[in-house]
Amino acid sequence: MTYTRSAFRWKHGRLFLAKMDAPVAFVWSWPEVDPATLNPTTVTISRDPDGRWHASLAV
Prior knowledge:
Structural class: mainly beta
Largest sheet: 3 strands, antiparallel
Distance between the termini: 17 Å
Helix content: under 10%
Number of helices: 0
């Protein structure tokens, strides 16, 4: 699933997807970058064969 800017909110490093009241829980895997400083344009949510979910941000 790919969400454009109108279908998600990125607030203080927390990801809110459309029609969800609570932020999506995630583990940030890039320690050199503070997620609160990002301004993503799209968010892609995917699932691998093992059932793990991933969020990719385009900034």
